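Q: I'm a student working through a structural biology exercise. My instructor gave each of us a protein and asked us to get a predicted structure, then write a short paragraph describing it. Mine is Histone acetyltransferase. I'm not confident about reading structure output yet, so if you can add a plain explanation after the tokens, that would really help. Here is the sequence I was given:
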Amino acid sequence: IFIGRTAGSSSDGTEDSDFSADLEHTEASESARRRSSTRLTRASLRLSQSSQASVFSSGRRITRSQQGATNTTAKKYPLRQSRSSGSDTEANGETRSGADRDETPPRTPTGNAPSSESDIEVSSPGNDLDERLAKELSLKEAAAHDLSHRPKRRRFHESYNFNMKCPTPGCNSLGHLTGRHERHFSISGCPLYHNLSADECKGKASTRDKQAEERTLSHRQDENRHSTRNQAPTDRQLRYKEKVTELRRKRNSTLNKEQKEKHMDHRQSHGASREPLLENITSDYDLELFRKAQARASDDLEKLRLAGQVSEGSNMIKTIVFGRYELDTWYHSPYPEEYARLGRLYMCEFCLKYMKSQTILRRHMAKCVWKHPPGDEIYRKGNISVFEVDGKKNKIYCQNLCLLAKLFLDHKTLYYDVEPFLFYVMTEADNTGCHLVGYFSKEKNSFLNYNVSCILTMPQYMRQGYGKMLIDFSYLLSKVEEKVGSPERPLSDLGLISYRSYWKEVLLRYLNNFQGKEISIKEISQETAVNPVDIVSTLQSLQMLKYWKGKHLVLKRQDLIDDWKAKETKRGNSKTIDPTALKWTPPKGT
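A: Happy to help. First, here is the predicted structure for Histone acetyltransferase. I'll explain a few features afterward.
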């Protein structure tokens, strides 16, 4: 038999005339179905039971009404007859009395209509029992593998990456601080980090839901009150205020000896991997408010993660909000894990402090007193200023600057060891403050005479001439120090392009002003503070260095000089460094 159909019933609604044979084979099929019931799903059992009931009722109706049945037409479906030794399917067009009400095609074991003639077979009562049982077993096996008839199960969580793990030591990533999710992958949602269990988080979630319902109900009752500006508080609000005041009055202002020992043991055993114990530090009411705020923030972060705005596993910050700009990052930067997983950071453009949300940034900007980088302003012309920042005196600022630079530099390796370096920060001033344009850093004592260790122009100021200004300023410092400088290798792709362009411009300007017949690489190096190796490589790239009759000659290509003059005239002198505006003496020890 077929699941959903029984022997003795054809697919077009006709029945065998011998009702006793129908009952006999139906009982045989029922016993076979009981033997293999463990392999049927619940959906298959329901289909089988419903079809058997319909066969019994329709069989009785057809048997009793065969003598006086009228010729009625029903919708026909193509059939493939099987061999039979007993009574065959009647071909006179007799149909069931209810065929005019149900014209749908018969269903296959998967619950779908057959797509071809081979999908339907009519079993005859005279078939061999073993043959029918073999067919029955094969169909049930196919139904067990075909899951399309089963109801769609609710997925555990469609967006969970089960290769991820919570960074808290000893945590199995189960549960969530909100009590609404089955798993977590960050510290903000970790119950263990907050010294809770998954069951406790679920209990707190149910309590918060009940309180929210009560609060909503009370608000609806208060809506009937007349809304006036000087509205007096209700009795319920007064009672709640008295209750909160009493709860806050009961708390102990100091910890006893046992509580202090408990807090110290927890801190020594777990360190920064767990949240400090918060019990008995404040009132129970305020602690519960803090827990609610934590759960709400964790729920918001989970929604952002499901929406794809929070990255997991890659620890890649995708965008940063920096002043008026929202910048797409290029490379990974080793920010702390709780910040790196957010995908978006909010930064103060003056003190470079990084934050998690726009609200925190807005509150910070309301009280931040910084309007320019720390350190000494050593250059100012127009609205362009350069500040010298010592990595030893302003360590936090310089570390934040290095982390910011790593988002846009591939080869940068300096993040936290900033004490041996000086940072020269270029800014553009307006009525709101000095906005970061770019910076370069240099070692206080460089044995290889590197005048630049790292250089960066912010993406919003690129292709505006600020990169060459930074490079020119670094060579201006080398001239004041009476040294020959060179950038530290390896250079990034954009850094190499900028330096090649700057060296080309310096050499063409020098050759344009040079009136003699003999020129020396050493003289060019001493006057421009550019390393001789960089001068030679630039001359070779410009095809201005030739070897002829045992001597090296420098060709003065007038076409390149004319092109440079035309660009200089078109560009103007707005983005140039004025040596007279520099007020600086070399630091001691350099």
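A: Here are two points you could use in your paragraph. The longest strand covers residues 433-443. DSSP finds 15 helices and 13 strands in the chain. It's a good idea to check both against the output above yourself.
Q: Great, thank you!
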